[in-house]
Write a structure and sequence with these properties.
4-stranded antiparallel beta sheet
Length: about 525
């Protein structure tokens, strides 16, 4: 009996303890309800209570609002219309090497959402409200040509909803898009970049796109590129995978490069180097710096081409205009080096090692000097004279040399010793020449004494030796004159080649420069802006 009584008392105690917790809970609920009523009373007095009530009314009553398409037409007869536009703010960068353009722009998206309609009179005249973009439905419009790591580079700002159900969304962003760069006329080139926007998951039967325009009124000028125009159009595509149509909007951005930077820092130095290569033909071949000067210019052009190669895309589809110009100038400088080597080689030739061929002599010493208005000092060429007449003129005897040519040697005189006993050998024309033949045998010879026959023979022998030496000296002098004349002819031939190279390379430089500037589609406009 005692155990049963104790058990009954414990049950009563537990019941009373539960009752206390129940009473406490009831008291807490009463106080919380009163606090809520007080808070509601205070909320009516706080700022923004109409907007908070509207948010509760719009968001709280529609679960999955951010996932449900605000349209009841699924048969394609009345798809949801989404208007899309773009405002271009600034061109951040154009990467020619990677063919990527970076833009600062704003997208303008608007559509109708019937679930976001309210009566402004019920909410204190509130006609628009800003909603969290994660709480409402919005079209998943993406840039198809995006090159960003996140793919969607726009910043998801709040959505603006109006009382009539119209919704507007203005997401800004730093967009990186692929852009096919055509470097054919670089640096006088124009580029067209296409930004293609479209709904990623909805086809055209559910969501249709309408173009609202492209705005450039807030565009900030770029230091390298000029915005020529921006256009947009709508296209509809049908892919092989699906039967539905997929609309998209393409924005065309037309750019033109400001070429002043490249003209001043690349083109003008290259042109100066090409002109300096012409000055190498004015240097005499005897100077040792002529060839090194040309090699230095060639190395300078290679440095400029290396700098230029780092700014161009690694493509073989087109050769840039400036690349063509550099290649032509490089070829002309290389030709200048070859012609310089040729002129140095010709000017260093000697008659002991080289003999000038007749055809080379005719071309370099007769024909080309007339065409180039050149004349070798102290020498008259008759290129139109017949060869027989020239040989005749060259073969005429010169009286000043006849004495030594006809003088006998001592050996010749001894072989004819007794043949001339009747008179002195000094009076023989064949022995001594014209000068001493004027004396008759009866007259006294100017160099011989009749009273000294022994010394006469000695004097005659000495005279023959003197004549032999004079003849040897004359022959040596003539050979030296011929060698010197041959050397002068080689040097003059090198001067003719220098003059010819100067004229030809100058004409090629002028023609190449003119072709480069004239082939640029908008060079005149660029210079006017520069």
């Amino acid at each position: 009996m005692l155990g049963i009584l104790l058990h009954f008392l414990q049950n009563i105690r537990c019941f009373l303890s539960h009752q206390r917790w129940t009473v406490a809970l009831l008291v807490l609920m009463v106080f919380s309800a009163g606090a809520e009523e007080e808070e509601e009373l205070d909320d009516d007095k706080m700022a923004g209570h109409n907007e908070r009530r509207l948010l509760k009314n719009l968001i709280g009553n529609y679960p999955y609002r951010d996932m449900v398409l605000p349209s009841d037409s699924y048969d394609g007869q009345n798809p949801l219309k989404v208007n899309i536009g773009m405002s271009l703010i600034q061109i951040i960068n154009v990467d020619e090497k990677n063919q990527i353009i970076t833009l600062n722009l704003w997208l303008t998206l608007s559509w109708m959402d019937k679930s976001l309609v309210w009566d402004p009179d019920e909410f204190g005249g509130l006609k628009e409200i800003h909603l969290n973009p994660k709480k409402v439905w919005k079209p998943d419009i993406l840039l198809y040509s995006s090159a960003d790591e996140r793919f969607d580079a726009t910043y998801h700002v709040n959505v603006i909803a109006n009382y009539n159900g119209s919704v507007e969304w203005l997401p800004p962003g730093l967009v990186r898009s692929t852009c096919a760069i055509d470097v054919t006329h670089f640096p006088f080139d124009t580029q067209t970049c296409i930004l293609k926007y479209g709904v990623w998951t909805y086809h055209g039967f559910l969501v249709d796109l309408d173009l609202s325009g492209a705005d450039t009124s807030s565009f900030i000028e770029n230091g390298e590129w000029v915005l020529m125009a921006m256009k947009a159009n709508k296209t509809v595509q049908k892919y092989d995978c699906c039967d539905e149509l997929y609309p998209d909007v393409k924005f065309y951005i037309f750019l033109r490069r400001r070429a002043m930077y490249y003209t001043v820092n690349i083109l003008i130095p290259c042109a100066v180097l090409s002109v300096l290569s012409l000055l190498s033909f004015l240097l005499p071949a005897e100077t040792g710096e002529k060839l090194s000067f040309c090699i230095t210019l060639l190395l300078g052009l290679n440095i400029f081409m290396a700098v230029l190669g780092g700014k161009l895309p690694a493509t073989s589809t087109a050769i840039p205009l400036i690349g063509k110009y550099f290649t032509c100038v490089l070829i002309m400088v290389a030709i200048s080096v070859l012609m310089t080597i040729t002129t140095i080689n010709l000017s260093a030739r000697h008659p002991n090692t080289h003999k000038m061929p007749k055809i080379v002599r005719k071309i370099l010493l007769e024909w080309l000097p007339i065409l180039l208005w050149m004349k070798q000092p102290g020498k008259v060429y008759r290129p139109l004279c017949a060869s027989a007449e020239r040989d005749k003129i060259a073969g005429q005897a010169q009286p000043g040399i006849e004495l030594l040519e006809n003088a006998p040697t001592y050996r010749d005189r001894r072989s004819n010793g007794s043949a001339n006993q009747s008179g002195s050998y000094l009076n023989d024309v064949n022995l001594i020449g014209i000068k001493y033949a004027n004396y008759t045998r009866d007259e006294r010879e100017p160099m011989v004494d009749d009273g000294a026959k022994g010394p006469r023979e000695k004097r005659s022998r000495e005279l023959c030796l003197i004549l032999e030496e004079l003849r040897a000296l004359n022959e040596r002098h003539e050979r030296q004159e011929r060698d010197d004349q041959e050397i002068y002819d080689w040097k003059f031939a090198s001067m003719v080649i220098d003059r010819l190279s100067l004229i030809v390379i100058s004409l090629l430089t002028a023609i190449v420069t003119y072709k480069v500037l004239s082939s640029a589609p908008n060079y005149v406009e660029m210079e006017n802006e520069g």
